[in-house]
Amino acid sequence: MPGFLLFALHYSDFADELKKKISEGYAVVRSRLNDDIKARNSAWTPLQIAAFDGAVDDFIRLLTPESVECRTPQHLSLLHVICAGQSDAQVRKITFLLEDACGGDATKKNSLLSHLSNNGFSAMHIAVYKKTATGDLLGKLKSSENHSFEGDLSLVKCLLEEGADPCLGGKHQLPPLHLAAMIGSPSIVQALVTEGASLAANDFVLFTALHCATYFANEQVVRCLLSCGADGNVCGGVKDRPLHLAASRGLSAITSLLLEAGADPQLADDEGNLPLHFAAKTGHMAVLNILLRSSSNVVETVATRNVYGDTPLHLACYGGRLDAAKTLIAAAGSHIMVSENVFSETPLHAACTGGKSIELIAFLMKQPGVDPNYQGHDGHTALHSACYHGHLQIVQYLLENGADQSLAARTNERPATLQGAPQSTFAAAIMALNRPETLSGISSRDSVVSVEDQQTPVIWAYEKGHDRIVALLKQYANKRPDADVCSEYSSGDSSYTPLPSPMGRLRSMTREKAEVLQLRSTLPPMFHLSLADIDFQEAIGSGSFGKVYKGSYRGKIVAIKRYDIFLIEYYEKE
């Protein structure tokens, strides 16, 4: 079984998974900030209600020295409540609270400025995040959970004048500058930078403020940060630069801004990806063309490989990006069509692995020197890739355009953990579909053919359970004029091609379940889990053995690793 190909798609998903986690992290931040700025009159004291949206005279009348440090059930201070509130008098309330009510007590004042809510935010975070509103708009905002926020500049400036730390990240390691960059407020960004906010500080995902502004597509904030001296080549947690983020999101205007500010399009991230790799993968043509024009050596740039050996063309082909592929080939020449990655896949292999565009495959096959039967370093062809990944229409297209299903991959090129696996019990039957008329083929008719030597496309399709592809390959094998596949079973106009019985696979599954039950019987009851107690929620990762799911077990969030039984079978046989 071509277990090594399991990684051919998953490796490129790493960046996508990282971005998903980043988005989820910021979604949590938004949710908790929304929780902190929400009015809770039923749970608040009259003083706290007055701090939120009452008249300043009512607030002053109700405030006593003892109540200066009072807290809401959410552990919000009066300063938090004022910053979350919606009143034209909020700045005056802050000044009175910090100057008059604190009575010159610097410790009490600093305690209010640095105090964090249960959700981990300071009053500055609230001021930066919340949206100002008055009149009718105020009522609408109170009743809406999904309104946008742009920050309250007057409150931010007031807090800064009172000595608030512009770099205080809070429990979430989220500096106010990053929050301002996220919501898209250049005026607040400017105010924070002027008062000492660090342009190089990292947040909880190791983004700088420039990363945040780029990630959330806030062009004016990007412009502001660059004018304040932000480094366009600053690294994120995986050496991802703002230019990588702009390219992956198709932000052509921000891409141009970063390049004009000195961002280097030749800098790679930890996986060796240039910004061009991301533009090619996502198919954002405007950004791709900008990056190509900015390159001093287009041919060299287009031929750049990441740690997986992928050129930008490989990623375009995995993603089915026809226009990107056309542009890259036109820029670098068709010689890049024979470039293989570490999975022994050329761009044509990649297009067949991704299986997203027959038009792309047709275009690639028309390029000079492209052979549909080209075998990568491990011997597998584009047909192998399409069969393994279950792309029926692409398999048919390849067969109709010269693909040879008798070509075999070399299993000795697989990772060491998969080498030496014993032959399959269905090998003799399955190999009848592809056996060429050779001396070795003839001599093998009365013996079991080793899967180690005969990894043909049909075996790959069968191993993955793609029955319709197996049937299609059988049909085309019977049409071959040189095929001996029907010789023993032909009669007149009818013929029969033997296919492997599913019983072998069922026996394997039954045996493994028996072994699991045997292992379970040797373990103490405390280690026994019932599927009824486990709730599978969503896939959060994958690897060579199978998938990892987020789920719950008896009220607790857990990670559940679900194994691929076919891979387990190989490892067990070693």
TrEMBL record:
Put simply, this protein is called Ankyrin repeat protein
Q: Which Pfam families match?
A: Ank_2
UniProt KW keywords = ANK repeat, ATP-binding, Nucleotide-binding, Repeat
Q: Name one GO molecular function term.
A: ATP binding
Q: Where are the ANK repeats?
A: 172-204, 238-270, 271-298, 308-341, 378-410
Please tell me whether the keyword Nucleotide-binding is annotated for this protein.
yes
Q: Does the keyword ATP-binding apply?
A: yes
Enumerate the residues binding ATP.
Answer: K561
Spell out the SUPFAM superfamilies in the cross-references.
Answer: Ankyrin repeat, Protein kinase-like (PK-like)
List residues of the Protein kinase domain: 534-574
Q: Which organism is it from?
A: Ancylostoma duodenale
